[in-house]
Amino acid sequence: MIKNARQLRVSERKRKDLSDALEADRDRLAAMPNDVAQLLRSGAESVVQQLVDEILAYQELSEDPPSRIEYEGIGELAHALVRARIASGLTQAELADRIGVHENQIQKYESTDYEQASLARLREIEDAMPVLFGEARRAQPAPRPAWERNHTGVPRALESLIRTYSADPEFDWTGFDDDR
Amino acid sequence: MGQLERVLRALRDAGCMTVILNGSFTTAKERPGDFDLLYEAHSVQPRLLADWLEDPAEAGGDVKPMHNETLHGNQLLELFLTDRDGIEKGVVRIRLSSLRRN
């Protein structure tokens, strides 16, 4: 994953150098047995494609950032944090400045997939980034069928009232005791 | 390490003599994950290569051929020998003749 503008430039150069070299090898490959040439060509082309994919992913994230970065599970957390920083338009130095650490610290976190970062530090970083960031909603349990919902013993019109009251800590219960 | 050893044996069986290993096996990360591997292809017989070597999910990493008498082979090697910032880094070269026989 490309994490900053410098890495973008390096990847673009590597992609161009590899593509140019493959093109310059045309005669050399033609002189080899077909199966060997095919093996070499497809191997190199797949590396070029990987570089192109990474370059496009970085450009899309920085030029057309999503409003929310989601991840599924802790295993994706580190990459999602980097993506959220890029989508927020922050450099590693700017993020470091926002949380009061040296730029090297953010570089180290990102190059080691945040393995040594504390939970408290991860929260600081999350708070420092304007792009919303969070775990993707996991699959919800299937809703109960309508016939089951309609036979809970509580009239449906009242169900919504019950939820409203219990979710509202400011609800004024004065007078309810009087009815008991 | 089992998956990597399986890859190395499959490459040796196809005639490969040397590989260059990159990726988190060669870094200080706490949980070594997948790897990138470049194998020298000049002695390899493609028809003996296992199909699954091309599938990173099955091989446990990216496995790519390189021929050191080609320009693009040297570019691939340079790609391996520098990190994402373009800074040189160490990699591991493994002679497959040193693998234990089954």
Strand element count of chain A = 2
**Main sheet: strands, sense, barrel of chain A:** 2 strands, parallel
Strand order across the largest sheet of chain B: 3-2-1-4
Helix content of chain A: 55-70%
**H-E order of chain A:** HHHEHHHHEHH
- Strand elements of chain B, count: 4
**Assembly of the depicted chains:** heterodimer
- Average pLDDT for all residues of chain B: 86
Biggest β-sheet of chain B: count, sense, barrel? 4 strands, mixed
Task: Count every helix of chain A, treating DSSP H or I runs of 4 or more residues as helices.
Answer: 9
Low-confidence stretches of chain A: 158-168
Main attributes of the structure:
A: 180 residues, mainly alpha, two-stranded parallel sheet, 2 strands, B: 102 residues, alpha+beta, 3 helices, 22% strand
What is the gist of this entry?
Chain A is built from 9 helices and 2 strands. Chain A is mainly α and 180 residues long.
Walk me through the structure.
The complex is a heterodimer of chains A (180) and B (102). With 180 residues, chain A is mainly α. In chain A, 61% of the residues lie in helices and 4% in strands. Chain A has nine helices and two strands. A two-stranded parallel ribbon of chain A has the order 1-2. The radius of gyration of chain A is 27 Å and the shape is elongated. About 6% of the residues of chain A have low confidence. Chain B has 102 residues and is an alpha+beta fold. Chain B has a four-stranded mixed beta sheet with strand order 3-2-1-4, sandwiched between helices. The longest helix of chain B is centred in the first third of the chain and has 12 residues. In chain B, 32% of the residues are buried. The model of chain B has no long low-confidence stretch (mean pLDDT 86).
Please write out the topology.
The complex is a heterodimer of chains A (180) and B (102).
Chain A: H1 5-24, H2 26-30, H3 34-63, E1 68-71, H4 77-87, H5 92-99, H6 103-111, H7 119-128, E2 132-135, H8 146-149, H9 156-167
Parallel strand pairs in A: 1-2
Helix pairs in contact in A: 1-3, 5-6
Chain B: H1 2-13, E1 18-23, E2 35-40, H2 56-59, E3 61-66, H3 71-81, E4 92-95
Parallel strand pairs in B: 2-3
Antiparallel strand pairs in B: 1-2, 1-4
